[in-house]
Amino acid sequence: MSYTIHEVAEKMGISTYSIRYYHEHGMLPFVQRDANNNRVFEDSDLEWLNIIVCLRATGMSVERIKHYLDLAQDGDDTVPERYEMMKEQQARTLQEIQDLQQHLSTINFKVDHYAELMENHEPDSFLPSDLQQKTAVNQ
Amino acid sequence: MSYTIHEVAEKMGISTYSIRYYHEHGMLPFVQRDANNNRVFEDSDLEWLNIIVCLRATGMSVERIKHYLDLAQDGDDTVPERYEMMKEQQARTLQEIQDLQQHLSTINFKVDHYAELMENHEPDSFLPSDLQQKTAVNQ
DNA sequence: ACAATTGCTTCGAGTAACTCGAAGGTCAAT
DNA sequence: ATTGACCTTCGAGTTACTCGAAGCAATTGT
Asked: What is the pLDDT of residue B121?
């Protein structure tokens, strides 16, 4: 089964621009061209792209991803380094999730605070709304 | 209590460059200067900065954050719009956490797969290591 | 007392990872 | 034969930093 760049973009939830960018930067080394020079993507390319999207979304730089993909093409000798890279990415992602959960609770506070303000929509005190926020955030 | 830009950077876990960037872009409107033109941060500035860091980390653009902070200075009339903004950010962040958890499980697969390869470190089949990864990811 | 160091300042350039528009080629359909 | 849909490359633009250079002020070392 083969796909156009637009089909791939659709399937992966990224832009055609990004796909071309990744291809230009050597991260999709097996993508073929048809008679009109158009990119032709196979399922195996989608799997590479899936890894790229996963690693980008979890904060790995394009350069590091390229290095990882190069390692994957260099055979089993590189498994330990790839293992270390994924271990690091695992830790980074866990940390990122924790951070986001922390930030989410800050945002939840804001939402609740505004909801309250709107419910009993008196000006509700002489304090500037700014200070009210601060107290809401700080305790 | 007042702080230098380096102290603030340390406290907030961001760079002095970022802090100057936010200040230049009008997101820290209350920061004062001392006799030598150096920025002087008060606790109230740290609270603003805390909100900025939270919103940036959860994917809000600098421009939107600026708008949000402008609203906060415009008084209680803007509470409904601020509420909507925080609601949206709440949803975005929940989604982002979910996506990260999905990506994390993909990475976990990789880690486990490499760990196995290293444990019984025979070349373990005639398949290129690449295809092995694919099967590991796909089932 | 004077030089060196420290720590801030601004300004302008550089970077990562896209993002987009213009100009152009190929092909199917009207 | 031309229109429209898709694709291409190329180069410029964008966001959010990131950094280095040059400069000023206060403190520290000799």
From this structure: 73
Nearest residue in B to A55, CA atom: B103
Asked whether the beta carbons of residue A93 and residue B104 sit closer than 8 angstroms, the reply is: yes
Sheet holding B32-33, edge to edge: B2-3, B39-42, B32-33
Half-sphere CA count of B33, side-chain side, radius 13 A = 6
Helices first, then strands: H and E counts in chain B: 6, 3
Q: What is the pLDDT of residue B122?
A: 63
Distance from C-alpha of B41 to C-alpha of B31, rounded to nearest angstrom: 6
Shortest-distance nucleotide from B52 CA to C1': D16
Q: Quote the CA–CA distance of B13 and B46 in Å, as a whole number.
A: 12
Backbone angles phi, psi at A122, to 5 degrees: -75, 160
Contacts of B75 in chain A (CB under 8 A): 128-129
CA–CA distance, B83 with B59 (Å, rounded to integer): 17
- Read off the pLDDT band of B120 (50, 70, 90): confident
> DSSP 3-state assignment of B28?
coil
> Is A34 within 8 Å of A40 (Cβ atoms)?
yes
User: Do A9 and A19 touch, CB atoms closer than 8 A?
Assistant: yes
How confident is the model at residue A122, as a pLDDT? 63
Helices (H) and strands (E) in chain A, counts: 6, 3
Residue of B43, B68, B42 whose CA lies nearest to B54: B68
Mean pLDDT of A60-74: 97
Structural domains present in chain A: 1-74 (1.10.1660.10)
Six-digit token pair at A82?
């790839």
| CB–CB contact A47 B79 (8 Å) | no
